[in-house]
Amino acid sequence: MAVQGNLDPTVLYAPKEIIEAEVQRVLDENADRPATSSIWGTASSHGAAENAIHMVECVHRLSQK
User: Fold this and answer.
1) Cα–Cα distance between 35 and 29 in angstroms, integer?
2) Residues 43/21, Cβ–Cβ less than 8 Å
3) Which end of the chain is more exposed for a tag (fewer CB within 10 A), N or C?
């Protein structure tokens, strides 16, 4: 069963270190089951597109560990 992590979309406005820490938290909380990550579709329209890209890169990198 896939699980959608609980990443607060407001984290996309935080510094990149915070984004990475939150991604790691969601991955850790779901370590015992498959997880999917998604963000709400408002990121690009509210100026957080760069951080949304960073979040996706963190998910890819950290989920490989």
Assistant:
1) 10
2) no
3) N
Closest CA to 31 of 61, 3, 58: 3
Tokens 């959608």, residue located: 4
Bridge partner list, 4: 36
What is the distance between the alpha carbons of residues 34 and 4, in angstroms, rounded to a whole number? Answer: 9
Residue 51's H or E segment, with its range, is helix 49-63
Residue 13 DSSP class = G
In this predicted model, what pLDDT tens digit does every residue of 38-59 receive, in sequence order?
A: 665 545 556 678 888 898 899 8
> Tokens for 5?
């992590």
Considering the entire predicted model, what is its pTM?
Answer: 0.76
